[in-house]
Amino acid sequence: LFVVFGALLEASGATQYVIQVALQFFGKQSGGPAKVAVLSSGLMGSLSGSAVANAATTGVFTIPLMRSVGFKPHTAAAIEAAASSGGALAPPVMGAGAYMMLEIINRQPPVTYLEIMRAALIPALLYYLSLFLLVHFHAKRSAMATAAIQDANGLPIFGFEGWTFLGALGSLIGFLLMGVSPFRAVSYSLVYILLMIMLNPRTAVSRSARIGGLLCWVVLTIACKTLLPMIQSWQEAVIWSMAGLLAISPVAHQWRPMALKVFRTTAVGSVSLIVVAACVGIVIGLVSRTGIGTGIPQAIIPLAGNNLFLGLVAIMGCSLLLGMGLPSAVSYLLLATIIGPVFADPALGVPILTAHLFIFYFGMMAMVTPPVALAGYATASIAGASVMRTSLTAFCFSLVGYTLPFMFVYRPALCLIGDDGGTPQIFEVVIAVAAALVGIVALSSAMAGYLFGRLRWPLR
Question: Is 325 helix (H, G, I), strand (E, B) or coil?
Answer without folding.
Answer: coil
